[in-house]
Amino acid sequence: MSPPRLAVEEVSLAFSGLLALDEVCFTVEPGTVHAVIGPNGAGKSSLLNTLCGIYPVTGGRILLDEHEVTRLRTDRIAALGVGRTFQNIVVSPQESVLDNLMVGRHRLTSAGLVATALWLGRREQRRHEERVREIAHFVGLSARLDSTAGLLAYGDLKRLEFARALCLEPRLLILDEPVAGLNAAESWELGQLVLTARKALDLTVVFVEHDMGVVMSIADRITVLDFGRVVAEGLPAEVRRDPIVVSAYLGAPDRPEATPQAERTPQ
Amino acid sequence: MSDATATAAVAPRAVARRLPGALLLAAAVVVLLALPLYLEAFWLRIGLFSMATAVGALGLTILFGAAGQLSLGHAFFVAVGTYGYAFLSGGDTGHVKGLGLPPIVAAVLATLLAGVCGLLFSPVAGRLRGIYLGIASLGLVFLGHHLLLNLRPVTGGYDGRSVTPFSLGGFLFSDSSDLAVLGVPFGAVESLWYLFLAVTAVATLVARNVLRGRPGRAFRLMRDNEVGAAAMGVRVQRAKASAFVLSSMYAGVAGVLTALAFQRAVPDYFDLGLSIDFLAMIILGGLGSTSGAIVGATFVVALPIVLSRYADALPLVVGPGQDGLDASIAAQFVYGALVVVVMLTQPGGLRAMVHTLRQRRRPPYARRTP
Amino acid sequence: MTRLLELLVNGVSLGLLYALITLGFVIVFKATRVVNFAHASFLLLGVYVVASAQPSIGFGAAALLGLAVAGLLGLATERLLLSRVDRRNHHAMAILTIGLNVVLTAELTRRLGESVLPLGAPWDGHVVKLGPLTLPLTVVLTIVAVPVLIGGLTALLTLTGWGLAMRASIADAEGAALVGIRLRRVSATAWVLAGLLATAAGIGLASFPSPGVSLSIESVAIAAFPAAIIGGFDSLGGAIAGGLIVGVVQVLVAGNQDSLSFLGLGAGDVVAYLVMIVVLLWRPSGLFGSKEFSRV
Ligand SMILES: Nc1ncnc2c1ncn2[C@@H]1O[C@H](COP(=O)(O)OP(=O)(O)OP(=O)(O)O)[C@@H](O)[C@H]1O
Ligand SMILES: [Mg+2]
């Protein structure tokens, strides 16, 4: 199946008074890698959450190809082939890496309670486990499949989330700060993985990232958010030169590499 | 080393590691099957109560341990199983009515009935979580108790009602059968032992399948992060509701077994205390684990019975009616204190303890590198 | 009409007592995320001490003693038991309180058995006439005293440094710890408060027209849980509203038992749970609870 086109049309989102997104518009062309950047609190994560149906929009439309997904439930959107990762890593810490990845196959498998209870889910499970192992191999987690997820190193956790999103066999891949907290080498590596996956799996990718090196090297287009508004959009080279962007964001005196500590919003 | 040789080198070791487990399991099965030939009825009866309770605990460990849905209403669904069976299989005696169905049919229907009750509660169970669900389900216990006292024709009211003994294909699970095996007379307790063993085994295997399979994985991610689970395509509300229904059915089976073990159904057994005991069992044993649920249930059930049996041998403790520390109260002290001690020393429950012991005993080369 | 009014006033008084019980439970839950399964036995222990000490030292001193014992019990629970468990392991802590509850209940059962100890409060046995209404003095005192108590507690929470620390750690425990709030102190205070509030409510529950302190007080106290849920766990206001709703509904149903006989005997004791389930179907976080937005 060909990768989808994502259209965000005048999407607004308010949290009891606070306008987190203000008529945000942009389009992601099929098969491209699209970055969303902006300072802390700009509304980037909120935007991704509206795309997945986690936050209900207060206005506007979101289209995946011709489907309007604006008011769909999160699981319905996932079922359309939208896989994602989270900024503040969401895994089952007590489960093995393999089990965590297998959850990604949920929408592709069908064994319900009764079937599983009656030993009927085994075949399906084995079949999907093979594919999951391939994906784990692709991201470099093969050796960790039996480890408990909670004991993984930070970089491996990031990879685990990425791999789990791929396990969904997504058409649209959404990544919230995929390389935050990784060192330069790991970041570059994961950036390349995104590009490889896009090509091999025919994906459209939307990602949020503070690491400008990665953004500039893998994004086809960039949307810049500030205070919930789109302040600039264009090719990486254009955005880099845009004076508004430079003053609002890039020019901010020496914004440090995003570290996980600094990134975490208080829960 | 190539992949193939690596697998070859690992395989025998894996077998060697599994072998003692398999042998242990086989030995346990043999022992469990032979027990009625050697043990007196007192111990067998403890076994029956333990197994009945263990099935209920398995249900709760799926619901709370895996899906993270706190339920204090488990006693209600156990009551539905018990009274469902008693009513469906019982005959009319005085004011108390019954449908007189064959016991096996009554048992299956009682289980389904508990499931249906769980389903009826699912608009609540599917939307709530945490303490809200805990206390909402606690309401079921009180409402249920009220119904048990007031629906006299079905429940017999305060005094309860008697329970029809189980029978299957003409074989009656009661003292009136005059079967004897190796000179041991096979009364109610001995024959029920095998019935309960079979039911508990099936219930355990089903729970393992569910926990290790697709639903179990979805439940656990939902427990750890609802939004994350939804983003993986899990229908959260439905998953919560189905975990609740499944656990109600487990409670229903536990109720049927309880009815058979007690041979009587009385309302006061199904109080909030029972729900809380279930919770204590699964956490003592180790949340989300089938073996933990069984061990926890056996422990909580057996402790007071054993203590009162040996009341005379214990210092301070006396039998009922005598002056001094009543055995049932002493059992409560020990139970409460043990719960506290286990949680202080082993917050992951007994399973975590066994796990650490095993890790320690395993030779270093077999330990997984972190 | 007069009777209905009397019932209503009685219901409000009972509801305020529920609100007190609920408050202690909610404060502990919010400050430490622990479901205190021993809350009802804190209450029973507190009033038991009052009732058993009052013949020798008088009611006033006995009441203080009871409050002190329950407060200390709360403190000891936090210091000796809960502080030894990983603060994030809420399950283990909740089960600890189950264990504690089992022990406390066993001890109280051993001491009380079937007996009923008179509370010996000076207001016991007195009734007041307010116009056409005849009300037990307890009811009137409750209606005056509990709002004062709750007002004081609110002032404590909003005006003092301790209150600020408390609210900060309720909103965000980790953040509060980062800015130097000592979580242990906050949670210890919450546990002491729980003991005090429970005993205060217990004194009300065991006063005339109730015959005195007996084991059944504990099951009366449990009806405070649906009250907490009906109001929603988030606000003091919710606890009060929930308590009032439960109290009034309970008293009205019990008072009209004859015309409501189709509900069965003792319907007054369970109607609170019915109301709770209906409310939850309508609003899953209770009447005043805020809907949670989980952040990811
Ligand atoms: N669930 C929520 N409830 C209330 N306000 C929220 C919620 N989620 C986000 N916000 C608010 O919306 C605004 C945008 O937050 P968002 O997390 O989208 O920022 P972000 O661009 O992802 O920032 P960062 O770079 O730090 O991740 C912030 O002011 C934040 O406080
Ligand atoms: Mg963000």
Count of extended strands of chain C: 2
CATH level 1 class label of chain C? Mainly Alpha
In total, the number of domains of chain C comes to 1
Major sheet summary line of chain C: 2 strands, antiparallel
Total DSSP E strands of chain B? 8
Largest interface comes to: B-C, 45 and 48 residues
The coarse overall form of chain C would be globular
Tally of separate helices of chain C: 12
Strands of the biggest beta sheet of chain C: in what spatial order? 1-2
Question: What's the short story on this structure?
Answer:
The complex is a heterotrimer of chains A (267), B (370) and C (296). With 267 residues, chain A is α/β, with parallel strands linked by helices. Chain A has 11 helices and 10 strands.
Description:
The complex is a heterotrimer of chains A (267), B (370) and C (296). Chain A has helices spanning 44-51, 74-79, 97-103, 113-117, 122-139, 154-167, 184-201, 212-218, 236-241, 243-250, 260-263, and strands at residues 6-15, 18-28, 33-37, 59-64, 67-68, 82-84, 172-176, 204-208, 221-226, 229-234. Chain A is α/β, with parallel strands linked by helices and 267 residues long. Chain A has a domain at 94-155. In chain A, a hairpin with a 2-residue loop joins strand 9 and strand 10 (229-234). In chain A, helix 3 (97-103) packs parallel to helix 6 (154-167), helix 5 crosses helix 6 (154-167) and helix 7 runs parallel beside helix 8. In chain B, helix 3 (74-89) packs antiparallel against helix 4, helix 3 packs parallel to helix 6 (130-150) and helix 13 runs antiparallel to helix 14. Chain B has 370 residues and is mainly alpha-helical. Chain B has a single domain (39-367), classed as ABC transporter involved in vitamin B12 uptake, BtuC (Orthogonal Bundle), CATH 1.10.3470. Chain C has one domain (2-124, 135-282): ABC transporter involved in vitamin B12 uptake, BtuC (Orthogonal Bundle), CATH 1.10.3470. Chain C is built from 12 helices and 2 strands. The longest helix of chain C is centred in the first third of the chain and has 31 residues, at 2-32. Chain C is an all-alpha fold and 296 residues long. The model of chain C has no long low-confidence stretch (mean pLDDT 85). Chains in contact: A-B, A-C, B-C. The interface between B and C is large, with 45 and 48 residues. Magnesium ion (MG) binds at residues 44-45, 87, 176 of chain A. The site of adenosine-5'-triphosphate has 14 residues of chain A, from strand 2 and helix 1.
